[in-house]
């Protein structure tokens, strides 16, 4: 038999998320705190929920990160479902490269002092069984995604061979690792990719539960994303990689506190101050560049390979310059410039041709896009480069990749026709009324100058 269902859960509320003083780490290992009393209650609520599922949906095996808080979260579940808990470093905590220490978690011998009643016999599933171990120097976002890939590649066949009767497993891990594991199952390209057309991110609140099921084509589909409905206080401490700090770290807690204080102060100010409609305010907006950039013949792309080019990425780089038309319009125009990167070196002569990878950042450079406003679901938070909360945004612009602009050819005198005013390419898209008005106004202004 094969694994058909994978549950991914994050550990419960940590004791060091509360104001000090904090209890010592039971294992004596740095950054290995126990759960707070509230976290223990969350773990019990998760156990009650899993026990309430039909027998054919309940987990049959539990894999936990070796860190104390994860096994403590596993305990009531294991007791409720009459299961044992195995530990594996492949689903351990994510520590960033710039961190002073990167703790190594406890092994079975150390953890049996606290969890002897729930841990599996070490020989059945050794802690380093798969030899998938976080990098000693720390990990960036690419590293943890790669670790998740290595884990699933090694874990699924080895586990199915050793435990062929098990179809449903539960993995209890950490926010970053939970997101990385889910991203690989869904074949996302990064840990910050959305999972659907509604711009939904993988969620990882404390003691949240996600569920993935194997489809007929041997892929994985998510049917539950960070569910917290069974928790008495709902979702708490949700985190994702956009926050720019380690989940649950001192920096994370400080960020959350600053946000709470800022929002509280903002509410107080709004209730006390009468704002003039003509006053200015800082307004943050996100921009979605097309994810299906088409490679044209004039995009300076060449290859000896017979394979279709593959777009490596499509991002707006920090060095990029953005120009906008009137943002109060329904369809503002945006031009992205200074977004090029150095080209990759070509393969040496005589080497086997390979699939060409195109930098999507170059494909959007100097392009003009017509955009549309789209309301965000919820509110996104904006932080500066130091991780300080500076504002929030509720809307973003979505670029239309179908409406194209082409610079007019020069006339016989060598001057650009109509002073180089771009015209929209109507193939595949009907230009908006604003777009036509904008081009007409631009022509008039050019004629008057």
From TrEMBL:
InterPro entries: His_Pase_superF_clade-1, His_PPase_superfam, Phosphatase_SH3-domain, Tfc7/tau55. One of its GO terms (molecular function) is phosphatase activity. Keywords: Initiation factor, Protein biosynthesis. It comes from the Eukaryota. Gene3D superfamilies: Phosphoglycerate mutase-like. This is Tau subunit of RNA polymerase III transcription initiation factor complex (TFIIIC), putative. The keyword Protein biosynthesis applies.
């Amino acid at each position: 038999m094969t694994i058909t269902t994978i549950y991914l859960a994050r550990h419960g509320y940590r004791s060091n998320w509360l104001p000090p003083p904090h209890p010592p780490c039971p294992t004596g290992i740095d950054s290995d705190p126990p759960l707070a009393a509230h976290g223990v209650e969350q773990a019990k609520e998760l156990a009650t929920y899993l026990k309430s599922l039909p027998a054919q949906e309940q987990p049959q095996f539990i894999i936990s990160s070796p860190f104390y808080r994860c096994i403590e979260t596993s305990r009531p579940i294991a007791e409720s479902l009459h299961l044992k808990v195995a530990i594996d470093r492949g689903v351990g905590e994510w520590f960033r490269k710039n961190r002073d220490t990167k703790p190594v978690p406890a092994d079975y011998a150390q953890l049996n002092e606290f969890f002897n009643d729930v841990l599996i016999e070490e020989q059945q599933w050794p802690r380093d069984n798969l030899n998938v171990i976080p990098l000693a120097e720390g990990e960036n976002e690419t590293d943890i995604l790669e670790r998740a890939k290595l884990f699933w590649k090694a874990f699924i066949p080895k586990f199915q061979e050793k435990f062929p009767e098990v179809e449903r497993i539960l993995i209890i891990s950490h926010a970053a690792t939970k997101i990385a594991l889910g991203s690989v199952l869904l074949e996302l390209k990064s840990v910050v990719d959305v999972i659907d057309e509604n711009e939904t991110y993988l969620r990882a609140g404390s003691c949240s539960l996600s569920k993935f099921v194997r489809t007929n084509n041997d892929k994985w589909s998510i049917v539950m994303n960070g569910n917290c409905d069974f928790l008495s206080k709902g979702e708490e401490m949700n985190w994702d990689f956009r926050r720019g700090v380690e989940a649950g770290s001192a920096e994370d807690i400080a960020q959350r506190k600053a946000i709470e204080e800022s929002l509280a102060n903002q509410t107080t100010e709004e209730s006390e101050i009468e704002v003039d409609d003509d006053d200015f305010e800082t307004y943050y907006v996100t921009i979605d560049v097309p994810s299906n950039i088409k490679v044209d013949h004039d995009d300076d792309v060449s290859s000896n390979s017979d394979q279709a080019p593959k777009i490596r990425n499509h991002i707006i780089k920090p060095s990029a310059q953005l120009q906008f038309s009137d943002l109060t319009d329904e369809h503002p125009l945006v031009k992205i410039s200074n977004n090029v990167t150095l080209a990759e070196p070509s393969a040496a002569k005589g080497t086997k041709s390979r699939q060409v990878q195109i930098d999507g950042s170059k494909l959007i450079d100097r392009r003009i896009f017509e955009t549309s406003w789209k309301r965000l679901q919820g509110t996104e938070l904006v932080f500066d480069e130091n991780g300080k909360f500076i504002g929030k945004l509720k809307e973003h612009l979505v670029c239309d990749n179908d409406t194209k602009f082409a610079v007019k050819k020069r006339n016989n005198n060598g001057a650009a026709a109509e002073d180089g005013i771009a015209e929209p390419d109507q193939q595949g898209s009907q230009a908006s009324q604003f777009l036509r008005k904008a081009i007409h106004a631009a022509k008039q202004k050019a004629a008057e100058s």
